[in-house]
Amino acid sequence: MDDMNKVGNSSCNDGVLLRMGLNDNKAGMQGLDKDKINKIIMEATKGSRFYENELKKDQQVNQRIEKMMQLKEKITTQQLLKAQLQVDKLVIELEQNRNLSSTIVHIDMDAFYAAVEMRDNPELKEKPIAVGSMSMLSTSNYHARRFGVRAAMPGFIAKKLCPHLTIVPLNFEKYGKVSKEVREILTEYDPNFMPMGLDEAYLNITEHLEERLNWPEDKRRFFFNTESSAEKDKDDINMSVKFNEDGYSSSPVLFEDNTALMDDHSEQRDQSVENSVVFGTSAEEAVKEIRFRIEQKTQLTASAGIAPNTMLAKMCSDRNKPNGQCRIAPERQAVLDFIKDLPIRKVPGIGKVTEKMLKALGIVTCSELYQQRALLSLLFSEASWRNFVDISLGLGSTHLEKDGERKSMSTERTFSEINKAEDQYSLCQELCRDLAQDLQKEGLKGKTVTLKLKNVNFEVKTRASTVLSSVSTEEEIFAVAKDLLGTEIDSVAPHPLRIRLMGVRVSGFLSEEEKKYQQKSITSFLKSGKENGFLRLQPGKSDQEYFTKNSEASPRGSFFDKKRAARQLNSENLSPNETVGKQLLHDRKSSANFVEETKKVTDLQNSNLCKIFTCPVCFEEQSSNNLEELNRHIDECLNGTFVKGTVEISENDNSRENMLNLLPHFKNENVDECQKTKTDQLSGTDQSASTSDNSASNSTEKFTQISDKTHREKQPSNLSDIARNMCMKQRLFPKRISQDKEDHFEKTKHAEVTSSSCFFEAQEDSVLVCPVCNSEQKTTSLVSFNRHVDVCLNKGLIQELTKKPDFPTKVYNTENSNRVGGFSRGQQSTNLPQGTKRSGLTTSQSVSKKAKPCNSKHTIETFFK
DNA sequence: CGGATCGAC
DNA sequence: CTATGTCGATCCG
Questions:
Q1: Model-wide pTM > 0.70
Q2: Strands, DSSP E only, in A689-772?
């Protein structure tokens, strides 16, 4: 493709090459320069199916950008001003809550896989190497990087860039071992450290540093490794730790200059003991110690970042790599200085697409991100622009959240083209088999199965189906997956489906509680039951019988047992279909028929499933599309603990909502309080292991955060508070809270809150009080009520803004459901507890324990001054 | 809920 | 010849 990117114009095309990560080539003498690299890659790429698809994706991104620019054109000055005001309220609030009290460390092993391979094979040292295969490289050493050889590049292209490149196959077992060694060290500094893959980890060393202050020298003394295996390379590797930030050269002899090591804590390094070194008590020293120990133990170097939150720590560790470290002092100004000129692409969570979109708005650095915050709040989703604000303020999570339970499990494989339906089915089955094994290892069962296909043109499709009874065995998963596959084969018929990748995923796992009920109910109750439709919930006999080809595949341990169990739950009328299916499958042309037949089976299952079901215990009609819930109901009936009316199961599943709405104080509290209440409520009724999984410290921390916040936000004092309060008073509870799991509730709540549709979803009898002017609005029309509120609000806003009354109002818009004018949403989620997001990297910082009063009187304008 | 996309390692 | 695998999050319909 052509041209440079025209900033401010829609046709912003960077060309595919730039996306391949060739922006920063530190061309060494033996390396290649950037143009040369791009040229070679382009030659190898041009005309390939892969490239064509890349162009297509590029076009899609360009269209997104175009849409965004069109949206931007429509924004009025007033809207922008309003947005500015709103965002800046948030900025001030965030700024007040800035928490610099934690010390977070990000450890990143340098070129990890490549480094391991070089360590274990000295022949590879001094050579350019990469780890991976001819199709895909996982990483490369620094020598190879000078030729433009990088991670995520196919090996055959790397070879063109660097003909002498040695490609070493992956050896995960080895990397895992080394990783474990490193983790053994890390855990001493933070037992709750968070590994991110094999070669990275976050640590919260705040506590360690406190204790460390009182440690005697001996506890901070470490010895050089003198073991014979390491001896021979001692000069080259063992002592190569360098500390760039100290102005240290990468001298092979470590700590030869004592004075340079006496940094801020001016501690005298004691070398009185032969072959040992003592580290100081500062954060830098502690991290040097970590890196030293890692190198002594593994002969590998690591880079590290030290900062008040995870986002900064991560970016910090990138600063002085390889084999260096960097610290951002826990001071606001230090943070802002670091952020100032940083390209947004360096920020974790900002990938190439987001980079390109922001670039189209003229945003490249973090300060520009900050300057455009108002505009961004109108162009991007709530989650996105708030993330942008966090980034431009240098905020991130100040504690390491525990990984939640896994949400999905999948397996996928790439291969040379497969276009015969028969092969595709058996491959699918094989994937299901692998996946079933993995699921079993963790004892998981899920309700939705997703099939992923990539055709030979690299176009990816996913097709999902969620079933009533959860699946975990090969047969169960395959029963669903083969349907999905069949539909896809049909969709291109009479042409063959030409694929290069297939994957199967299972998600929608049962909570611990659901598992419990599933077991009890399905096995004990339903099995003994006779005529009801549940009997057809379990899929048919092993589909393995469809494939003579696979019949010799090693029978798994309890295969027959499982089969017998399956048969017991199996309905009689499945067998005929099975045989039909078997015959049909081997008829080449009739995959359509095969699918139809197997579909019949599932349709049968579906249609026969009691949508309405009379509980055999309480004789009340129950309807649900969720088997586990029905089972729970039955169990509760059986146990006699069922309290009528509280856990009514209905199709709409609004029972939880009703129950929660009964709580008297509910609507008057703010969201955080609601959440606490609700959490209590949930964990009170629900003994699920998922709630108890949270460590004590974790949950107490959560709790203090919440109550802290609620305390702070009791009285509305400014507009944002008013708006928030407005939401509080009027917002009725989310429509669906179907899961008992606490963290799932979090997610649900988030989704509901973010969706503007749930905002003033008033019930018929509710009286609407305008939260701004406080007058009762006697209207049943939400639209007119919203309009009134908006007018009130705009009056207030404009008074603050320009001291002039009257302002063209914008109704809570439905036509532009997103972005522009989404005032209510913005204010609403101001109230969400921060840091609920999983990904750690993008979450906001948590509220500090002691909410300190607004000390800094900085103005927004002078922010980056 | 399903499907596509993004982003990270 | 030859462009990964696995997971979580988000957005939209």
A1: no
A2: 768-769
